[in-house]
Specification:
The protein is 40% helix and 16% strand. It has 321 residues and is of the alpha/beta class. Residues 3-249 form the NAD-dependent epimerase/dehydratase domain.
Length: 321
């Protein structure tokens, strides 16, 4: 039996694929390569090129492979862009999830781990987010992720689908020299591109009510995230008790200023970031508790900030130009 990873050629999905293989679990990948990379997927892993909006493609994958569950990572992940392209975000994240769940039901695939997002919380009114914190998404992206959780919940009630959703904030670092974050919107690759081009990185605001004036966020290492997905999959396979949602959070967070200091230290490139105006609606601090996931999913922060930066920097420098 194998687990299907949708979006398994992407930055996060590829790490999940390798985490499964490290634990002796077979994997199948579906990815349309809209943001992923074919060479992120090991050559001996079965790979289906295409979108999960394609029901015939999914039916064929389930017919060809014995799949016991799905880790659903594929989706449109850019919150800011989703405000300008809401229909695209909903198609990729809601319609596609419905198509996937229908194909799973038809093929009697009983379990799913859903890659959700802390964007479901919007701007929380608490310093430490828990799974019970009020959900108030502020973008079509965040709304689409919350709808995805509802779809799993309702399908669970209707047909007994076993499921859990993992919510997380900022995923960074690399677990392998050949896997890197190529997103045009994430902080780490934006800083690296600026440094490689001889420019000063830009940050948004330095007068927030935080110790150094910059925003505090939850940054977690992608390899730790991948391990938690596999742990969730194993609980579902075993039929063990599992919560419907988990936050994968650090519990304390890191400021953007601290990240800039770590970037300069690790890369050996001295710089002073340019400071732009704060982005409207950006809260000073968003940090999540990971206690529930620590209890059930072997979740813990295994990497320091310097290690996160160093692993990401090394993988980016190894990337094909």
């Amino acid at each position: 039996m194998a687990w299907l990873v949708t979006g398994g050629a992407g930055y996060i999905g590829a790490h999940i694929v390798r985490a499964f293989r490290d634990q002796g679990v077979e994997v199948v990948v579906v990815d349309d390569l809209s943001s992923g990379h074919r060479d992120f997927v090991p050559a001996d892993v079965p790979f289906a090129m295409g979108t999960i909006l394609d029901r015939a493609l999914l039916d064929g994958v389930f017919a060809q492979h014995e799949v016991s569950g799905v880790v659903h990572v594929a989706g449109f992940k850019y919150a800011g862009v989703s405000v300008q392209r809401p229909l695209h975000a909903y198609e990729q994240n809601v319609t596609a999830t419905i198509t996937l769940l229908a194909a799973m039901q038809a093929a009697d695939v009983p379990s799913i781990v859903f890659s959700s997002s802390a964007a479901v919380y919007g701007t929380p009114d608490t310093d430490l987010v828990t799974e019970r914190t009020t959900k108030s998404p502020e973008s079509p992206y965040g709304e689409s992720k919350l709808i995805g959780e509802w779809l799993l919940r309702d399908q669970g009630a209707a047909v007994g689908l076993r499921h859990t959703s993992l919510r997380y904030f900022n995923v960074v670092g690399s677990g392998a020299a050949d896997l890197y974050d190529s997103s045009p919107h994430n902080l780490f690759p934006l800083v690296f591109e600026a440094l490689l081009e001889g420019r000063s990185p830009r940050i948004n605001g330095d007068d927030y009510p935080t110790p150094d004036g910059t925003c505090v966020r939850d940054y977690i290492h992608v390899a730790d995230l991948a391990i938690a997905h596999v742990a969730a999959a194993k609980l579902l396979d075993a039929g063990d008790a599992i919560e419907p949602v988990y936050n994968l959070g650090s519990g304390d967070g890191v400021s953007v200023g601290e990240i800039m200091e770590a970037m300069a230290k690790v890369t050996g490139i001295a710089f002073v970031p340019d400071v732009g105006p704060p982005r409207p609606g950006d809260p000073a601090r968003i940090v999540a508790s990971g206690k529930l996931a620590a209890r059930d999913l072997d979740w813990r922060m295994r990497h320091t900030l310097d290690e996160m930066v160093a692993s990401a920097w090394n993988s980016r420098r190894n990337a094909t130009p």
